[in-house]
Each structure stands twice: as C-alpha cells, then as structure tokens.
Amino acid sequence: MSLEDPKTVPLKFESPPEPSEPVTAIAALRTIRVARGMSLDDVSARLKFPARLIDALENERWDALPKGIALKTLTKNYTRLLGVDFEALEPVLRQHLSATQSGIANHTSTRAIGESMEETRSSGSAGWVVLVVMVIVIIVTVAIWQGMVPDSLMPSWLKGPSNVG
Q1: Could you count the other beta carbons within 10 Å of the beta carbon of residue 75?
Q2: In order of start, what are the domains of the chain with their CATH numbers?
Q3: For site-directed labelling of 62, which of 16, 78, 92, 154 has its Cα 20 to 30 A away?
Q4: pTM, whole model, 2 decimals?
Q5: Where is this region: Disordered (predicted)?
Q6: Three-state DSSP state, 59
Q7: Ramachandran region of residue 98, left (φ > 0), alpha (ψ -120 to 50) or beta?
Q8: Residues 124, 129, 130, 134: is their CA dihedral positive or negative?
Q9: What residue spans of the chain are helical by DSSP H?
Q10: pLDDT tens digit string along 79-104?
Q11: pLDDT in tens, 127-147
C-alpha cells in the first residue's frame, strides 16, 4: 500500500482562501466550489471552459476574461453548477459585460438583446400579417374572376347583373 498507488492517494482538496480583505460576491464562488469538494478541473470539465478562465473569474482578473456574452455565459453556467443565484452577481458583472471592443457584441450588448428582439418581433409581426392578408385577397379575387367560386357562395353584390327575362 504505497502512496504511488492511485487507489490509496487521497483526493485533492483545496482549502478556502483566507479572507485578507472583504470577500466579494464573485470571490465567494471559489469558497462555494471548494466547500462542495470540486476542483477547478472538475468545474472546467463540466462547463467546457478552460480552468484558467474559471480561476480568473474567481479571482476577478477581468483582463484575463472574455467580454460580453461569453463572460455572461461562463458566469451563468458556473452559478447554475454551484446552485447560486446568477441575478445576485449580475450587477457586479454589468460593467464587464458591455465592455467589448469590436465584433457583433459591440452592436448588441447583453442588456439590449432582449429589447431589440422585442422591437423586431412587433414590427416584423405586423409586416407578416399585412403580407398574408394581401396574398389571401389576391387569391380570392383571382378565384372570383376566373369563376372558380360557386354562385351559392358568392354574395349578391359580387354576382353582377343577371339576365332574367
């Protein structure tokens, strides 16, 4: 029974950091992770994010983290894994979520995505309704003009003059 035998080697556990300064909401994620017995590698494997990003998030090294949607996704998935409410962390992340330099995230900040989708839905829906109504009117008009609609279904004002003798 040697220490080199993988069956006898104890599991690696990290100890929570000693609070030298007040613990922030983000830094508390590490404490929760360690309390649940999860290593950075465990979290990395489950979230499909590199361990260096998770470590950077726990230590609030914002320059080493992605910006915008990627940061929100990482944080949301991490809080879900730990069973923590993401809404409590969102105010802390807000300044880092919208700090993008270029790309599509520059045009659609995470805060405005829902708003822009609502605008698109409302204006797009009205356009589709108008288009569908126009197509139906055209189809009915052509059907009447070509005599495809039986006289019993036609209103009297559309039948035209009758040749009753």
Answers
A1: 22
A2: 28-107 (1.10.260.40), 120-159 (no CATH)
A3: 16
A4: 0.47
A5: 1-20
A6: coil
A7: alpha
A8: positive
A9: 28-35, 40-47, 51-58, 69-82, 90-97, 104-107, 113-145, 156-159
A10: 898 888 888 778 777 877 765 444 55
A11: 899 999 999 999 989 988 888
